Amino acid sequence: MATVNVFNYNVPVESSFGYSQAIKSGDLIHVSGQLSFGEAGEFLYAGDAATQLKQTHACMDKVLDHYGATRNQIVSQTLYVVNLRQNFEVTARGNVNYFGDHRPVSTIVGVTELGFPDQVIEISFIIDTKLPV
């Protein structure tokens, strides 16, 4: 029988929307869309794609740390970007900086809006814990 390990930041939106940040089932970890959250669950850097992306990556690292995983174990990511054409270069540059030589499969989707006013970036991803760290 597979075990399930749930991770939450314990921020209000998790309860009000009814979701978890991540769930580990077997060797895979499915991670909800991460965004530019601060320590108290507040949305940070409204309208600033580059800084939101950096903070979103920091939130991704918190999930990885919780499970003892690394960026090299991320096998798939989906990026949701408001004003994709305007924010494509900063998103691409930030993605390369975050992953270095690692290349997970990736889908980037241009959207008209996200959950918070002036939110520009959200990233969901999947981790395979059987891959080398």
Attribute tags:
single chain, 133 residues, alpha+beta, 6-stranded mixed β-sheet, 3 helices, 6 strands, globular
Structural description of this entry:
This protein has 133 residues and is an alpha+beta fold. It has three helices and six strands, in the order βαββαβαββ. Helix 2 (49-67) packs parallel to helix 3 (84-99). It is globular and about 45 Å long. The mean pLDDT is 95.
Q: Would you spell out the secondary-structure blueprint of this structure?
A:
Blueprint: E1 4-7, H1 12-17, E2 22-25, E3 28-34, H2 49-67, E4 74-82, H3 84-99, E5 105-111, E6 121-128
Helix pairs in contact: 2-3
Shape: globular
Averaged pLDDT: 95
Q: In DSSP terms, counting alpha (H) and pi (I) runs of 4 or more, how many helices?
A: 3
Q: Reading side by side through the largest sheet, how are the strands ordered? A: 1-2-3-6-4-5
Largest pleated sheet: 6 strands, mixed
Order of helices and strands: EHEEHEHEE
Q: Quick summary of this structure?
A:
The chain has 133 residues and is an alpha+beta fold.
